[in-house]
Design a protein that fits this description.
Elements (H helix, E strand, L loop, with lengths): L3 H13 L9 H18 L1 H7 L1 H14 L14 H6 L10 H16 L31 E5 L3 H8 L14 E6 L6 E5 L1 H12 L3 H11 L5 H11 L8
Antiparallel strand pairs: 1-2, 2-3
Helix pairs in contact: 2-4, 3-4, 3-6, 6-7, 8-9, 8-10
Amino acid sequence: MPDLAAFQAAFADKLMQSSPVRDGLAVYRNNWLCATTDALADLYPTVHRLVGNEAFEGVALDYARHDPPASPILSRYGADFPDFLCDQAWVEDLPYLPDVAAIDRLYLEALLAADAPPLDPATLAAIAPTDWATLRLGTHPAMRIGWFTTPAPSIWLAHRDGDPGELAPEWRAEGILLTRPGLSVEARAIDRAEHRLLFGMRLGETVGEAALATANLYPTSDFAGLFARTLESGAIAAQPN
């Protein structure tokens, strides 16, 4: 008799093979496909809302056969679903859809990230002005940023909690910031300057280095305002004592 691992692998292969007739595995195959489709819809709710049940079920089934779950923890499933969407011919009519899927994934990562208190802006009051340039602030574990060549952030924000009706965003590159200062994920659109600031701080740049790089690229940006919004969003982690 085959060992358990070999049996499980063979059983999984059978489940992924479509059958023209109803065989003994049909009920298991249907349950497995339904479970993966439902899981992907839960992981990518905005994509699901945008394309509708029928279209999403079709692409979810194709994806399940292309990349079946490798772990019983379904939150790990579908990591490359945004890339998979890029390869689908019908997505050419919805060029923002892979980016919307990527934001759905960022939302999930922010939701499941480690807990940590955000930095209280009041604690920075004691820092001497001469020390600001060398100050290094760590980003919060739940902080996620993305920059896209499509208006996917505007589309995602508009559709996240329901159907906004007619929506005609300006076709331009946009960024998004997702944070979790409390129990829920918060998201808002960001411009190029704020994205550069957050990107630099996530890389470990000091406040002075991030400010200088942002000012050089975007000289009209209001760094003080950007930094204040960053603190208020909860994107910066509390510093250890």
